[in-house]
Structure formats: C-alpha cells, structure tokens
Amino acid sequence: MSKNGEGILIVVSGPSGVGKGSICRALQQRHADVCYAVSATTRQPRQGEQDGVAYYFISEEEFLRRRAAGEFLEWAENFGHYYGTLRSEVERLQQQGKNVILEIDTQGAMQIRSVCPSGVFVFILPPSLEELQRRISGRGSEPPEVQQVRLMHAQQEIEMAPMYDYQIVNDEVERAADQLMAVIRAEQLKRNIKKEKADC
Ligand code: 5GP
Q1: Which domain holds residue 65?
Q2: 23-67 tens-digit pLDDT
Q3: Site to substitute for ligand 1 among 39, 81, 102, most atoms within 8 A of C-beta
Q4: Of 119, 114, 101, 109, which is closest to residue 83 (Cα–Cα)?
Q5: Which residue minimizes the CA distance to atom 1 of ligand 1?
Q6: Has residue 186 been placed in a domain?
C-alpha cells in the first residue's frame, strides 16, 4: 500500500484495556503528521464514544455488505461483534502524507502484514496482568462475565507479542506515547536512507 512519499502505516495491537486508544490519541494530538484511522464496528458505542471519532458504528447488515464489496483492508470478529479497517480511510490519510495508525487486534494485524509488509507492527503490553484486570473492571461498562472473557482473550493476545517489530509497556500513557513516536521517527529515518540509496 505505502508508496514513496506516503506516510508509514503503524499497526498497534495489544489486549483490550491496555490503553492503546489513549496512547494513539495522545500522539495524534501532539503530532500533526500522525493520524488515527477510524475503524468500523458493529458493537454499541460506550459512554462518551462518538460516531466517526471512536469508531464508525454501523449495523451488522451494513458491515457484511461492505465486507462483501471489498471495502475492508482487514476485518475480525471480537466478542460477538465485527471490526474492520476501511481501505478508503487509510488511503485517504496516507495520500495526505500522514503516518497512519491502525489500532487493531492481532488477527487483523496478521492480515495487514500479508497485504502491507512495509507496515510497522507495535504491540502494547500492560505492566502486569493484575493491572490489566484492574483497568478492564475499572472501565465499568461491561458485565463481569464479559470482562472475564476480555481478560482471557487478553492473555491469548499477549502470546502474539513476539510476532511484532516492537513492544512497548504502557505503565504511563505519556511515556508509552513518546516511545511510539520514537519508533515512528526511527522508521522514517530508515526509509529516508533506503530512498536515498535507491536514488543514487
Ligand atoms: P473495543 O471493543 O475494546 O473497542 O475493541 C476490541 C478489540 O477490537 C481491540 O483489540 C481493538 O484493538 C480491536 N479492533 C478495533 N478496531 C479494529 C479493526 O478495525 N480491526 C480489527 N481487526 N480489530 C479492531
């Protein structure tokens, strides 16, 4: 997907509740060249989540129709709901020269690796499983049995961390955001060198 002159595609995964969203929002607010691609989902909005900002909240019927039309770069089913990255959203932002962050699960990340091997894959880890459990239950938006499923799923996701290019521990959002930005800047430098060599 990414061509010379286009921004980098940064795929950020990590267990539910690890704080990926807070890290990505912090980067987007501080760096004009970093943008978060809004995914589509069939799950209900949580309190405070706005359509078109947190997600595009769409019906299952619409999701399946758009999936059949090939509108998703990748998609996955999580906790009984569909989630997918809109191809048009990523292309629009990359064409503006933005470095585009996809905050997606490990199933989606592996699909992106096959269609966009030049992407940068970053896994966000919690400081500990106990802390993750505290964060998931602290969110208070879901019943305990759903929280339990999310925690079990989180453990499975964490096992995938070694497949990623980078791992960042989110013990503090600001610090984790700085580390993610350092990864993006380092990747930009690496690509500039490669491009210069190709131009010689
Ligand atoms: P949540 O319901 O907590 O917002 O998200 C549940 C999981 O779905 C998280 O792991 C999140 O990263 C993942 N997710 C969000 N958007 C997408 C997407 O577009 N594609 C895939 N594959 N996963 C997504």
Answers
A1: 9-199
A2: 999 999 999 999 999 999 999 999 899 999 999 999 999 999 999
A3: 39
A4: 109
A5: 16
A6: yes
